[in-house]
């Protein structure tokens, strides 16, 4: 089996850098734009994210996650850290305009080819109640804090936390049940 | 997945919270204690679950990354893996084979040196060339910058232009441009008493600039490199634009270095040079600020 792009980065193949940027640059940029207050902030963020990606490439295991999910995990960690440091989390006042992204029509994976782990996550997401979906979507996709979600939805803080925790546990378990080499996907 | 036992709820709560919004220092410490008590099981699972759902919610149609950002990341990434390879090669004690494999086509010249061919063709024959893989890595990264940088976008003839001597290109720019800034270097910190002269010139209309140096000490790129920072109205003073890393050869002559900004400056208000680890840094702590160039 050929090395993954990240495995090639880990072995210091400079051509893999270009390939990773071509394939996952849009994914990271979209995440950064969502977590950032300006293009300039997003540009700084993606520099930090990809530095983390190059550094962490040797930790990538294709049997555990797809490259897209692994890179998204690294990006989210860095972006969440930046958001906490800069106190730049989104304001709950903009919540009425927020929902599950229009691109997610309950059939994620149909429009474009996603990795198995993302498809499994989407499958689980669709099985959740509307309230759970909203909480998880606001938390994961929109980056709102538990407190902001509770404030905006009127749900008790403990319920918000429980929805997040249980949702992630179920996704994790579902992914675990199907763990195996994860097909790579083209995301950008 | 490991079974955690009776403390599962709190452990999972912290792992889930970290995955979606991060943890305070106090909660992070509590998480560390809980993980220690559970022999540190795999802790990426919640983060991967959140990332997988995020990718799914995004729907696989991400917003394209701006080309200028992608080019800057490519230069940085290439320099990073090349620097890491250099370190590995040096540790293994066999750098020459790798130098041969990357040197000729990818690095037609060593940008920023007055005598590029020496360090390119005899990689172990001088103080500079003794850098081995790292010198080749710098060539590769800087050649990439020359190829993909803003100047390259302006003219399809760039590959030929890029191979011209930087001093000649600087002279051509000054002769054909009227809007450029030109500021002399002032030595600071550990180089304050050195007889360093030279300047930084930048043309905003051409998006092109050069630095000249005489008397700037030769560096050992295996240990440290010079890094340029461009202070620009488009960026906070805390996060100036990364102008790229460069090395000083042992020639003693005046050296001309093309400015290689990772983002295109709007109109620089100051240039600064720090000494950093090989490959440079994303954010400098400025503890080794050695040169600045600014108006009057």
Describe the protein's architecture and organization:
Chain A has helices spanning 5-10, 14-35, 39-56, 67-86, 116-127, 130-141, 146-153, 157-177. Chain A has 188 residues and is mostly helical. In chain A, helix 5 (116-127) crosses helix 8 and helix 7 (146-153) crosses helix 8 (157-177). The longest helix of chain A has 22 residues, at 14-35. Chain B is α+β, with helices and mostly antiparallel strands. Chain B is built from ten helices and eight strands. The interface between A and B is large, with 85 and 56 residues.
Binned, the helix content of chain A reads 55-70%
- SSE sequence of chain A, one letter per element: HHHHHHHH
Rough shape of chain B? Answer: elongated
Low-confidence stretches of chain B: 94-163
| Multimeric organization | heterodimer
Q: How many distinct helices of chain B?
A: 10
Share in β-strands of chain B? 15-25%
Query: What is the rounded Rg of chain B?
Result: 23 Å
Give helix and strand order of chain B, one letter per element, not per position.
HHHHHHHHHHEEEEEEEE
Layout of helices and strands, plus pairs?
The complex is a heterodimer of chains A (188) and B (296).
Chain A: H1 5-10, H2 14-35, H3 39-56, H4 67-86, H5 116-127, H6 130-141, H7 146-153, H8 157-177
Chain B: H1 8-21, H2 25-37, H3 45-58, H4 67-92, H5 96-106, H6 116-121, H7 133-148, H8 150-154, H9 158-162, H10 166-176, E1 181-187, E2 199-203, E3 208-213, E4 225-231, E5 241-246, E6 255-258, E7 270-276, E8 289-293
Antiparallel strand pairs in B: 1-2, 1-8, 2-3, 3-6, 4-5, 4-7, 7-8
Helix pairs in contact in B: 1-2, 1-3, 4-7, 5-7
Brief rundown of the structure:
With 188 residues, chain A is mainly α. Chain A is built from eight helices and no strands.
